[in-house]
Design brief:
The mean pLDDT is 85. α4 links the parallel β2 and β3. It is elongated, with a radius of gyration of 32 Å. It is mainly alpha-helical. α3 runs parallel beside α4, α13 packs antiparallel against α14 and α13 packs parallel to α15. Helices cover 62% and strands 5% of the residues. The two termini are 15 Å apart.
Length: 520
């Protein structure tokens, strides 16, 4: 059914930063048979743009189109494969009377050219209503009150004693007669109208047409001819996984490039927070008095990175999921290529942001050292950021709204943050709770950051005051917070595994939602 028909939904869900031409090209490459050449595909797209009067706005982004233009683009997408049957769910929703009539006129011209067009519509104007050839009037509960030619509808209701006043909107009159209201017409009375249709002359005409179609389709020769017409749909070959990935990566790239202002604001906010953190710890040195300050600094840098990246992923991915669910339901592409192409851009953006963030903090605080000083500084921040993006995507994929995801994220973040080592002596934690630190992004990040920074210090000078506890070596400092020098590989491995596992959970979650959506 997906191959032989097109479905124009009531609401348009698209990546709105694409132009009309780019959107049609993207959909054409994924919806049309792969054996269609590029020249043929471009010719079909150009013809649709001309037929629907979209030439003036073909290079305009979808977000800047009017309601009527958006509906025409949505209709053009469904016609890329030239389906013989077209279903339209309230095609005039959100349109003024002129654009509504223009849309229905387009559908009428398609029907006159041989397509079967089926629409649901609510309270159409008289001009829109009279454009249709036949109508099915349905009441609450799905029962049919009338089915037949538009012109026969009023005659049928006239036989029931319901006469439409002159100069009255026909559609509005019919809907008013079938509306269930306590003060005018009860459900029983409306259902009686449905019962009367089953014994009416209009129903006999419909039944006669139905029987004629049945007779035609029982003719083997005619059925064979019909099978040949549908052969091209039965042998349709869709785009392979690599093509889907390439096109989705192209669309993600365009979307990011045209959202550069939002990304710029996000980066500036991230950097401003980093600047405040760095300025607060500027001039802190590796001595006994600076131990607590430096650990606070390490903790704040990792915490800011994790919170910023995880919650940004949560919000941005949640906004893309409705488009994903709509397009996977229509079999435009599968979930795997979409998720992989998006994760690649997430990794790139996160890597660039954390590099700039780390460089800014490194420069302001005045950290110095050998050749590996800056790489050692940025490595745990970047990997922590990647694990955080995977966490945000996993939560976004498995919950329908940000508010519902936050109900789980907040307590999980609290527990994870508590076991980072800054607020709790990890060595004193009861044995049955010690495993919690191994699922804490904060613990892995802060420990890795602390180890790399403290192990570069040969000796920590002690103060003259004997009453102050002296931590002479990096191992002693790390031990104070429950960290161990030998765990550096475990920390990076833990963050990498979190990135993989959380992205797998995210992929499985969105795939499950896609399957549920397809079953509706």
């Amino acid at each position: 059914m997906l191959r032989i028909s097109g479905f124009m939904p009531q609401t348009d869900l698209t990546v709105e930063n694409l132009t009309v031409l780019e959107h049609l090209q993207f959909m054409g490459c994924l919806r049309m048979d792969v054996r269609v050449s590029e020249n043929q595909r471009n010719r079909i797209i150009n013809n649709l743009i001309l037929d629907f009067g979209l030439r003036k706005c073909m290079h305009s982004q979808l977000r800047f189109l009017s309601g009527g233009e958006r509906r025409k683009v949505s209709l053009a997408v469904q016609l890329l494969t030239d389906p013989p049957v077209l279903f339209c769910d309230e095609p005039t929703t959100g349109l003024d009377s002129f654009n509504a009539l223009s849309m229905v006129s387009c559908l009428s011209s398609l029907a006159k050219n041989g397509k079967t067009v089926v629409c649901t519509i609510h309270q159409p104007t008289s001009g829109v209503f009279e454009t249709f050839d036949e109508v099915i009037l349905m009441v609450a509960g799905g029962r049919v009150a009338f089915q037949g030619a538009i012109n026969d509808a009023l005659d049928h209701f006239r036989t029931l004693g319901m006469v439409c006043p002159k100069a009255y909107n026909t559609a509005e009159f019919l809907i008013s007669q079938l509306s269930i209201r306590e003060d005018t017409r009860t459900k029983k009375e409306v259902y009686q109208i449905c019962d009367l249709f089953d014994t009416s002359e209009s129903y006999k005409i419909f039944q006669k047409k139905f029987n004629e179609v049945n007779t035609v389709y029982n003719d083997t020769q005619i059925v064979h001819e019909i099978d040949k017409q549908f052969l091209r749909f039965n042998t349709w070959q869709g785009a392979d996984t690599s093509t889907q990935f390439r096109l989705l990566a192209w669309r993600h790239g365009l979307n990011i490039a045209r959202n550069v202002n939002r990304i710029f604001i996000s980066v500036c906010t991230f950097l401003f927070t980093g600047f405040v953190i760095a300025a607060s710890y500027r001039g802190v040195i590796f001595d006994q008095n600076g131990v607590q300050n430096l650990q606070g600094f390490f903790n704040n840098v990792i915490t800011e990175t994790i919170f910023c990246q995880s919650y940004r992923s949560l919000y941005t991915f949640q906004a893309e999921i409705p488009v994903l669910l709509r397009e996977t339901k229509d079999k435009v592409y599968s979930v795997g290529p979409f998720y992989l192409s998006r994760i690649i851009y997430v990794v790139l953006l996160c890597s660039v942001e954390t590099f700039i963030f780390s460089f800014t903090i490194f420069w302001i605080t005045g950290f110095s050292g050998g050749t590996l000083s800056f790489p050692q500084f940025v490595a745990p921040i970047a990997v922590s950021g990647l694990a955080a993006t995977a966490y945000g995507c996993a939560m976004s994929s498995n919950f329908e709204t940000v508010s519902s995801a936050s109900l789980l994220m907040v307590p999980l973040d609290f527990i994870s943050y508590t076991f980072s080592g800054m607020f709790l002596q990890l060595s004193s934690v009861p044995f049955y709770l010690r495993w919690l630190k191994y699922v804490s992004r904060f613990y892995y990040g802060v420990e890795a950051f602390s180890i790399l920074q403290w192990t570069s210090v040969d000796e920590i000078p002690c103060p003259q005051n004997p009453d102050i506890m002296c931590l002479l070596t990096a191992d002693k400092v790390l031990e104070k917070y429950g960290y161990r020098t030998g765990d550096i590989e475990l920390d990076f491995l833990g963050l990498i595994l979190m990135f993989i596992v959380l992205n797998t959970i995210g992929y499985l979650g969105i795939r499950n939602r896609s399957k549920q959506q397809a079953s509706y």
